[in-house]
Design goal:
single chain, about 75% helix, transmembrane helix, globular, 21 helices, Oligosaccharide repeat unit polymerase, membrane, O-ag_pol_Wzy, mainly alpha, two-stranded antiparallel ribbon
């Protein structure tokens, strides 16, 4: 299809695809409106998740994905490549999201009585979900994690300060592959700590946990990571909507929260790069934060058409093995594959992110996209149902168990995150064993006291 520049190159579209895009935008808001009228939830997990991944990243970003200003981010040659396959990128991504709707419909029809629940959700719930519930109930573990996180964060900031990059520690560690695991470990522990504290806040509502959360946010702001600081705050806000307001929130409150989040992102962006607020819009529409459609198109133009048949997924499952010790991982990790395709050095460039459905398409074609979309849709509706049930029963713990159990499915679209999944699983396992040891020690210490009380009672009688 022919694509045309409009408004002096600010947007570049195919009139046919733009028409489809507009129809889908209208359909999204119609779906949201009828859901709101039926349930009373202005914000629910299903529509909020789709708003972030489908409406914002895909539908809203499409007109900007191959526009001329992208040249400032990826260069003239690469922009020409991205423009070449933009239509294919649109259709692949659209197929994936339509499959998400199919998966959501499957859950609405069959609920928990479906093989996806029996063979995927239930095993995850009974393994990592069970560990999560045990850890959330512990008051000591979040405190220990926060202490470890602050210690690691201090070490990270000291290294960045010595290198003269205190304003952008993340950039420093991305440039130093040998030190990158330290930064990844810090982020993983921080993510787990914030998740556990948030869960405890909305399960037990204790002031101590709220203080811990405030300490975590204050510490995380120093690292200059927009996701690290904004993500937990966004998580707190959405959980507050789900568990305290039951989806019923005024639009003005939502607007104020959105402006606040954007202001924080702008502040952190300025801290990291020194650019003014005017650069934030360019970063949103033409940068690398929401560039799924553009980057998938770029990769498709470099691809020779031969499917990988699971090679990058196998490399991801082997992510606990360092790349330096595995020639297979060096060759087939998705970041290294896309970096090689683009002509970049795998030691200097992290690779091109091919979007939510790009990697599964490169491996298994459109069938893989459909299957992944169905699994994601089922999982999203599963969690949405748990949240709305908790609003009636008050069993908020079940929701956070579902969040953790669904984390595996959430890692499937971008296998570069499998290292984080493995690391989180290992950390959860260690914390679970640590919690069991604490319980055993407590029970052991109570037994002599109980025996002494029994003997004393016998002497009196």
């Amino acid at each position: 299809m022919e694509n045309y520049d409009f408004f002096y190159g600010i947007i570049r579209i195919s009139p046919v695809l733009m028409t489809v895009d507009i129809v889908l935008i209208i359909a999204f808001f119609v779906s949201w409106y009828f859901s709101y009228k039926r349930t009373g939830w202005l914000i629910d997990f299903w529509h909020f998740s789709l708003f972030m991944s489908y409406f914002f990243t895909f539908l809203l970003m499409y007109p900007f994905a191959s526009a001329i200003p992208n040249v400032l981010t990826i260069g003239e040659r690469n922009l020409a490549l991205a423009q070449r396959s933009i239509d294919a990128s649109f259709f692949i991504t659209l197929t994936g999201f339509l499959s998400i709707f199919v998966g959501g419909t499957i859950f609405r029809i069959y609920s928990y009585k479906h093989p996806i629940n029996w063979f995927l959700m239930m095993p995850l719930k009974l393994s990592i979900g069970y560990m999560t519930e045990s850890i959330i109930k512990s008051k000591i573990i979040p405190s220990v994690l926060i202490a470890i996180y602050i210690a690691l964060l201090t070490f990270v900031l000291l290294l960045a300060f010595r290198a003269g990059m205190i304003n952008n520690p993340r950039g420093y560690f991305l440039l130093n592959e040998g030190l990158r695991p330290v930064f990844n470990l810090t982020n993983s522990i921080g993510g787990i700590a914030s998740g556990l504290i948030l869960a405890r806040i909305f399960v037990f509502n204790k002031r101590y946990d709220k203080v811990l959360f405030a300490v975590f946010i204050a510490a995380t702001l120093f690292i200059g990571s927009r996701g690290g600081a904004v993500g937990p705050l966004l998580g707190y806000f959405t959980n507050w909507i789900y568990f305290r307001k039951h989806g019923r929130i005024k639009l003005i409150t939502l607007a104020i929260a959105g402006v606040g989040a954007l202001s924080l992102i702008t502040l952190l962006s300025f801290f990291r790069s020194g650019s003014g607020g005017a650069g934030i819009l360019a970063e949103i529409f033409y940068g690398n934060s929401f560039s799924d459609v553009r980057d998938l198109s770029w990769v498709l133009s470099l691809w020779d058409g031969n499917y990988f048949y699971g090679k990058t997924y196998l490399a991801a499952f082997m992510s606990f093995i360092p790349s330096s010790l595995s020639a297979y991982r060096t060759r087939w990790s998705i970041g290294k594959v896309t970096a090689t395709m683009a002509g970049y050095s795998i030691t200097e460039h992290p690779g091109i992110r091919p979007g939510t459905f790009g990697e599964v398409y490169l491996n298994f074609g459109i069938i893989g996209v459909i299957i992944l979309g169905i699994l994601m849709g089922y999982s999203m509706r599963y969690i949405d149902k748990k949240i709305k049930t908790a609003a009636v029963t008050g069993n908020n713990m079940a929701v956070f168990v579902a969040f953790t159990a669904g984390g595996f499915i959430g890692s499937l679209p971008i296998t570069a995150g499998f290292f984080g999944f493995y690391l989180n699983f290992i950390i959860f396992g260690v914390l679970f064993l640590f919690n069991l040891a604490l319980k055993h020690a407590k029970q052991t210490s109570e037994k002599p006291t109980l025996a002494l009380n029994t003997e004393s009672s016998g002497a009196v009688i």
